[in-house]
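Contributing new records

If you add data, match the layout below exactly. Sequence lines come first and carry their own label; structure lines follow with theirs. Keep one chain per record. Anything else will be rejected by the validation script.
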Amino acid sequence: MRGAEIVWRTLKGFSLLVIVTFFLFPIFWIFLMSFQTNETILRTPPSIFFTPTLENYATLLSGHLETGSGVMTVDFMKNLMNSVILATSSVAIALILGVPAAYAFAYHRFRGSNSIAFTILSFRFAPPLLVVLPLSLYFKAMGMTNTYIGTIWVYQLIALPLIIWIVRSYFEDVSPDIEASYRLDGHSWWSGFTRIALPLAGPGIAAAGLLSFIFCWNNFIFALVLTSGDKQPVTVGALAFITVSGIQYGQIAAAVVLSILPTLALALYAQRWLVEGLSLGAVKG
């Protein structure tokens, strides 16, 4: 019996190693590419042994890309800051609007509430190409093309439905008797919302905010059509490394690594917060 248990644990550990390697190997390979020149990347057969260089990162930080036809100006760091501004602002606004809306849908049922909630969620189902053309025409008529406000407004189609539906399910899992008992002591509904409902739904709010941030950060279609020049995020700004003289694979890999760092740092921080928030949701009977 002991031998069978050892074999089972060995097989389980090996399977886990294979799965982790399968999913993390592309990221590992891109990380290696970011320290190679184009000649090293394109050599046949490929190899993990090479002389590393920081030239790709220096190009991104300096904003000057040397190509066969001359020197190009690539303001990637500006694109990175644009992504931070757009994703952070979009998620902040979506949380301000979405969390109270989720609370209302969970605790205050009214006629047509489920239909309205599903309609909001359907915005998340719609493919971006379905709405990007009329949106571009409306934004052009209103003078909101290539603006932070316009792009953040459109990003609500990504963040708001996700936050409302995830947080709504967490509010529904919280017993209404807890808040009712709190309000019987003379507290207002706003006090019950901020001191009872919000802490208990903390893990859901954190998860919804993190997922919304990642989806907004990775958006390409809306950013490609509605932004240009100095308002483009990293997902669109990376296209500058596809030049007439060839594709700059090393710079693209370095750009991918730098663009991953903010979301990775946020995910690590939110993971710790999620664990702490789970203890807030414990209810003693």
